[in-house]
Structure formats: structure tokens, C-alpha cells
Amino acid sequence: MDILIKSFNRPYYLDRCIQSIVLNSQNSEYKIVVLDDGTPQKYLDKLIEKYPKIYILKSELYDEKSNAIANNIRNINSKIPIELWIKSAKIASNYFLLIEDDFWFTKSFNLKKFSLNLEADKIKMLKLCWLGNPKLITENTNSHNNLYSIYSPNLYTEKPYLFNLIFRIDRFKIRKILTFLKFYSEERFINYYTIYATSGAIFKKKYFLNLWKNHIDLVDEGLQLFNAVKLINKKKKSAVFGFSNSELLKTGFLSSASNKNKNFKNISIDMFAFNKIINEAWFNNDFDAMENYPNDLNAEKMEELLINTNNPLAQVSEWEKWVQAFKNQYISFGCKID
Questions:
Q1: What span, in angstroms and rounded, lies between the C-alpha atoms of 206 and 235?
Q2: For 124-145, what is the mean pLDDT?
Q3: Do residues 254 and 299 make contact, with C-beta atoms less than 8 angstroms apart?
Q4: Residues 145/117, Cβ–Cβ less than 8 Å
Q5: Are residues 7 and 98 in contact, defined by beta-carbon separation less than 8 angstroms?
Q6: Interatomic CA distance for residues 109 and 7, integer angstroms
Q7: Cβ 194 vs Cβ 137: under 8 Å
Q8: pTM of full prediction above 0.85
Q9: Three-class SS of residue 171?
Q10: Inter-CA distances, 253 with 20, 38, 57, 232, 336, Å
């Protein structure tokens, strides 16, 4: 089975991600493919030296973004490398694991066993991570084995046009009216995330590619959910999903790959400046990405690096406030953060 890792400018997390795969895999029948969108080459070279069997595919904007990062240019092109993700999925194994660079395995796994069982059960998507949030999976399981539980989705409507009307279109105060009439609710909407994930899951290739139909170069989760509902409505009998019997992955909350959508009120930190500090420390062997594993990175060491560098764009006090605000977004949604 192929393991596709979305990567951008956090080689320290990517190092931990890859090392956790090597440590926890019960067999060697997998291929690690890093889908990189601008991590400077010297960091990638260090990773290749450490893990010579990995493959690295670069986005069309790799050179532009990596040069901007290397030269401390803050106005970096924010275009998402969707075409790289889709192209890589098309040439991947029939079932493939998709994760971000800040994911890591905490338990042993056997991708060959997963692949054989998923093929037999014809599962569209299997979640390996849901941050302890029962809203992102379902307890209404109808079958299980020693690897995972499977279920047919329990959705408010499986009719695409009704999904669009109730959960996707939000114009002319329609959402308020539907909420008042008790058609729309946050709980009903969240149920649709039992059939969708951005990463941290094993996807059947056809299902993943179906999610990205008509994307027009945008990451539109509403459109992807609509595409999923459309497929389920068409093939109800084969709409089977699942989740591993325990969460196999964790994800980090101590940094972001960019400044986009991570700016909080009254908190001032530049994540490109922050990552440059941690990246360089990691590159010079002054920061061990596996320290504190299987929990998140060593925050005390990161504080020390920020204090010693004393970059006005990445002060410790601001970073600590940013981390708490970032975590609170997930906690308020029902996720459990260590």
C-alpha cells in the first residue's frame, strides 16, 4: 500500500512522521511518497539521506515557494497543490493512506492486512484518526473484525439536491430559516464527516478521486461532501465506511505550515519565522523530532530555541498563546487534545 504524505515547510514534523512509520510497521510492503509544496531542498536532502527509500514528488509551485521560504519572503503564493494530490492518487495503489506531515503513528500496524480486508469488504474510506471525537465516526456499526469496525452512513438525507439546500447553500438567510424550521443543525451537518476526511485515513482510490470532482482549484469541503453524498445516493448498497478499532495516529498542535487561517485576535506570530527557527535547529541536529514521542514535540526545547533566537516575529509568549488558541478550536468541536 502507498503512503502519501502532504508536506510543506516542516521537515521536523515530517521526520517524526516517517520515523513513526518505520518504527511501527509490521511489514515492509509499503511505499512512502512525500507530496511536497515548497520545503527547501537542503531539508529534503537530509530526509532522503536518512530515509533513502522515500519518494518525493514536488508541486508545480515548488521552486517559487521554496525560494521564497529560503529568502525569508513572507508573501508566499498560497495556492494549494491540488493537482499534485490528484495526480499522485491516480498513480497510487488501489487503497492508499493519506496523511499530513504533522501526523505520526503511535501503535503498530500492518498495511498489507488492512489492504486485503478493505478489498474484501469493499470499504470506501477507513479512518485511522479522529482525535477522540465521536462526532467524526459513528457508533452505529454493523460489522467488525480485529482491525476495524465498518458501518453504512447514518445521514439526515442522502439526496444530493436536499444536501445542497440544507447544508451547503448559505445565501439570503436560508441557513437561519432552515435552522428555525429544524431542518438544519450543526449535529446533522457534522454527521456527514463520517464519510469524509482530509487526511488520516485509508482511501479507496476511486472514492478519493470522486471527492475532488469539479474542484476548480479550490479546497471546497462542501463540494467534496456533496460529491460523497452523490456517490452514496447512487450506490447505496456499496456505501461502506469504517474506522480502526483504536486510533493509530496522532497529530501535532505546536505549529502551522503557514500563516493562512491561523491568525488569532490579539496574537502576533509569524509561522514562517517560527518554522525557520525549528527547521534550522532540526537541520543542525539541535532539535530531535522524536523527543517526547509518542506525545507531541518537546515544547520546552522549542521554547528554549525561540528564546535563544529572540526573533521579534516569533516570541515565546505569542507562540504559547497561539498554541492554546489553536488547540481550543479543536477542543470546542469535541476533540481530545493531550
A1: 13
A2: 89
A3: yes
A4: yes
A5: no
A6: 22
A7: yes
A8: yes
A9: coil
A10: 17, 21, 25, 33, 12
